[in-house]
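Figure-free illustration: sequence to structure, shown twice.
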Amino acid sequence: MTMAETADAERDDERAQSLEFRSVPLGEIETARSRHMWTRSAVHVASGGDLVVTGEWDGTVTAREIGSDSESLESRWTANHPDHAVGITTLESNGGAVIVAGRGETGTIAAYDAATGEQRWRYDTADDLGEAVKDTVFYLPYVVALETGTDVDGTERLYAAARRYERDGETRQWHSTVYAFEPDGTVRWTYETDASPITIELDDAGERLAVGYNRCMGDHDTGLVVLETETGDLEWNWDPGTEGDRRVGDVSFDGDSIAVSSHGDKRGYLLGPGGAERWRVDLAVETNLDDETLYAYPNHAHASDGRVTFVTGNTYAVESRETERRHPNEHRITTFDGDGELRWDDDVRGFVHGLTADGETVAAPCAQNFRVRDPETHAVRWFDLESGPIGIERLEGIATAADVADDTLAAIEEPVEYHDKGQTRGEYVLHVASLE
């Protein structure tokens, strides 16, 4: 670690809140390597903060009680999902259901009874997307996002986005579908394109669903669409207007505004109704360092109560994906006010697989920085939207998933072995703590 990185770590420790994690092993998983791996685990804290549900790469789904016992996380039930269990949410109506998103041969979305784990219904997105043409992870049908909310008619509904990739020589193609489900699993409507969705977000009123498309290489050539939840009809769309197929990394509603992280030009945007640009900020735009032009993707966005937060990822070079240098704004979290003025920023230091928030609290599970390979980056960090950094909990392994709800923080740690270090760090573990 360099002197500057050591100083960063010391500052982290000085400001960190102390958490008492309760932990439980999750079994075995292939050890991660220097480069960050795809999403392999999921965790969700149910509303009320008394139940945490984990999804594992082997398809195991486990619901655990979060009680006052300082040691145990008692298992309520375990179910076997037909695919890799890579996404989880819950429906509160009809006694409660745990919804699991899959990546695998069938790309299954399934609902499990929150009390017993019994499967209530199942939908295989491969029926719409088609089957994988190659037996590798990247080609498998993949439910990339789940969202729940109450529509204007008072019905709680589930929304999902799924995709499948295929390549034939120089021809690359995506197949994707966005779904609206009734609580019983009936499909209300679908929205199909030949682009790659990466995120969905429902507005607070339950009237509009925003869909962010990461890769557009076919007829669908826009990074953001906003759909009416009643019908699935297109209300409006927006695009950064950049060359190439990279478009949007994440979207987030705040009232009638939508925050967008742009993979096209590596900027952050706040849009108004109809896609009118309210402001934009440079996040990790192309920057010349010596003889290289470097950039980093803004991967995550969260907007709430007049605050907009973005998180950037790994450094890449325009001429080559390999570089020894680092973009000055890589692995950074920044928060702006409603006028686009910077409120605060901070280093997250490692790759963040996903951003989670509840009220004024934002949490980031930080994995490896594959260009530096420094285990000090392994941590869960949490922030206050108004004031910035609150705390950090360091882990031996890499933090790859997290969720926060009702002052409960849950995170999943996975083992990692850097290719030039020869040491396995950490284990496959669920950690749960109270933020009160």
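We now fold a second protein in the same way, so the two outputs can be compared directly.
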Amino acid sequence: MNLYVQVAEELREVDVIVAGVVEAGPNNFEDPSIIYPAFYLQHLLPQSKTTKFYHGKKASQLAEQEPVVATGCILGGGSSITAAMYARGQRGDYDAWNTEGWSTDELLPYLKSLETYHGRGVPGSHGYAGEVHVSDGGYRGLTSENDFIAAMQQLGYPETVDLQSLDANNGVERSNRYVSLEGRRQDTAHVYLHPKLRDGKHPNLHVLVGAEVRRVLLNGDKRAVGIEYKPRSGAEMRTVKAKKLVVVSGGACGTPLVLERSGVGKPDILERAGVPVLANVPGVGRNFQDHQMTFYPLILDSLLGDPTVAPSGQYVSVVNYNAYPYSRGHIHITGPDLEDAVDFEVGFFGDAHDIDLKKQLWAYKKQREIMRRTQLYRGEVASAHPRFPPGSAAACVSVDAPLRDVRNFVYSAEGDAAIEQWLRERVGTLWHSLGTRKMAPRSELGVVDPDLSVYGVQGLKVADLSIPPLQVGANTNNTAMVIGEKAADIIIREMGLGRR
């Protein structure tokens, strides 16, 4: 098995380096906290060794809160630590990228080829022979699932068999997950890398863990010829040379920092950071987008009729996120070293006319009405909701039976103001960051072309969620996998290796 924590001397030069298979975090192979999705929340604990936390600047529109964005720091990246929800973008999402080769119809073969789908999908929309299994994991909490769907239907949202068909929307579905029928997480390392590391048929595949990439090495012709990295053991910087290609895959937060430390970016940012300018690409680190999330807990009936659920103390958290944010942020280096601070502005609620805030205001009210119509609803945990003024008709309640003849709350101006303040204090990331090295023409502050090559540099590509120019209306894991599949075909074609 060619998996290392330190590169052997004979591997100081390789054909292709994927800075993502050079992983800053640990190996994830057969780690129980990874392969069993139910443990995913432990990766968000402050002491987690599988997650990297990027601290954004405090902002007045966020009630002076410091936003924190968590990203995967383990083999398999975010796919190893997410909630494993299976969700695809809409047809209009990929078409809106307006990039040759990346329309929905052109990406559909990759969407299908990566998956073995076990759900009730629309014929022709899904794949049945891919590496990644998609299923319900062998379990559904039907009591709460049926109750929620019935409440959605009362407010005009029909149950839709397959919201992931690329064309369906405005409905509710019984979700599937990146989980095998045996209940194991389908992260990219376990389904793509580990089988090849162990089958004895891929001696040229080498994986390095516990090593953080500082920069890409560029020669005098502005060609990528290797990387410089630092082992997490604290040893000195090391290098590995690449004969043919370097592919950066550090995600929406990590990739722009690697490029800027390499001398690729906006000149004034690099000069302030003390990094020589090797390629003037001003779009690097701009256009940060994330699905802005709020969540709040509700009290449920303790008698669910489900023997796997404890008999008392039942709660549920409702999550709202803004699928298509208007606000934009940025992430940049402030110095040449890995230890230097990061200039990170998430941009949440920073858009003109407060459109993102208004969408979250609407979502809070709408989702609250849905939950009030469920049979399991027994009220709200008031301490985690907006601080409504005394006597408000929309105040949080606690009840001992399902509500009957439910009427929508009527919110006063003071009630709306309380929700807005709460949103500014509570909004955060849904871990769906993208866009910081967008694929677009250079004249539009693009960083990579349709073949994922970085402008102004030879032999350097980017293949991760930093390349989408616009958000997708879905959890982004599927989009990351599609980018990886498409990137593999591009690289295979350019290197004259035929077809996969």
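Summary for the second example: Residues 295-327+352-428 form one domain.
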